[in-house]
Write a structure and sequence with these properties.
heterodimer, A: 112 residues, mainly beta, 5-stranded mixed sheet, B: 114 residues, 7-stranded mixed sheet
Chain lengths: 112, 114
C-alpha cells in the first residue's frame, strides 16, 4: 500500500470548514484513499473513501486531485466534537481483508 | 447494536504473566483484526483473520498468538507479558474483500505490564 504524508497538526475555528491535506504521490491505479478519525483514544471511526472522483457523505467531502497524488478531506462546518486525529490511508480495496496501515495522522483542534 | 465488543477494558499484568484479550462482533463480518497503539503513535496491525478459519501475521506479531474461535470471536493471547507490550489494543472487523469494506473498531483494551 502507498505511503501517505499528512501535517502533524492543525487548528480550525468552530463553524468554519476544515481542510485536511494528504499527500500520496506513490499511489497506484487500484488503490483507494480512505479517511478515518480517532477521537480521544477511542477506536478509529470510518469517515469516507474514494478512488478518483470526489465523494461526499453526511460527515465530510473528499477531493482527490486529477493525478491522484494528493487529496483533501473537508469537514464543512467543524464543531468542537470534530477535535480528533485524522488518518489518511491508501490501500488496495480488493486485497484480502482490510489491513489498514495507519501513519501519524493530523491532530485537529477545533477552537471556539 | 453492540458492534465490536472488547473485554476487558483495562488490565494490569506483571511481567511474565499471560492473558487473553477477547473480541466479539455482531455484524456477521468475515474479517477481524488486532491492532496496538502506543502513546502518540498510529495503530499497528498485530494479526488479522481474513475469514473464519484463517489467521495471518501483521506488522508486529512477535509475542502474540491469536485464535479465530468462530465467525464472531477473535482472541489475542499474550503468553508471557513484557513491559514493551504496554499499549492500547484495538480489535476491528469488516465485511472482508471489496471496496466498501470499512472497518469498525472496538473501544480498546488498555494494558499495562509492570
Amino acid at each position: 500500500d502507498a505511503k501517505t504524508t499528512q501535517p502533524p497538526s492543525m487548528d480550525c475555528a468552530e463553524g468554519r470548514a476544515a481542510n485536511l491535506p494528504c499527500n500520496h504521490s506513490t499511489i497506484s491505479g487500484n488503490e483507494y484513499v480512505y479517511w478515518y478519525r480517532q477521537i480521544h483514544s477511542q477506536g478509529p471511526q470510518y469517515i469516507i473513501h474514494g478512488l478518483k472522483n470526489n465523494e461526499t457523505n453526511e460527515m465530510a467531502s473528499l477531493i482527490i486531485t486529477e493525478d491522484r497524488k494528493s487529496s483533501t478531506l473537508i469537514l464543512p462546518h467543524a464543531t468542537l466534537r470534530d477535535t480528533a486525529v485524522y488518518y489518511c490511508i491508501v490501500r488496495v480495496a480488493l486485497s484480502a481483508g482490510n489491513k489498514l496501515t495507519f501513519g501519524g495522522g493530523t491532530r485537529v483542534l477545533v477552537k471556539p | 447494536n453492540a458492534g465490536v465488543t472488547q473485554t476487558p477494558k483495562f488490565q494490569v499484568l506483571k511481567t511474565g504473566q499471560s492473558m487473553t484479550l477477547q473480541c466479539a462482533q455482531d455484524m456477521n463480518h468475515n474479517s477481524m483484526y488486532w491492532y496496538r497503539q502506543d502513546p502518540g503513535m498510529g495503530l499497528r496491525l498485530i494479526y488479522y483473520s481474513a475469514s473464519e478459519g484463517t489467521t495471518d501475521k501483521g506488522e508486529v506479531p512477535n509475542g502474540y498468538n491469536v485464535s479465530r474461535l468462530n465467525k464472531r470471536e477473535f482472541s489475542l493471547r499474550l503468553e508471557s507479558a513484557a513491559p514493551s507490550q504496554t499499549s492500547v489494543y484495538f480489535c476491528a472487523s469488516s465485511r472482508g474483500e471489496g471496496v466498501n469494506t470499512e472497518a469498525f473498531f472496538g473501544q480498546g483494551t488498555r494494558l499495562t505490564v509492570v
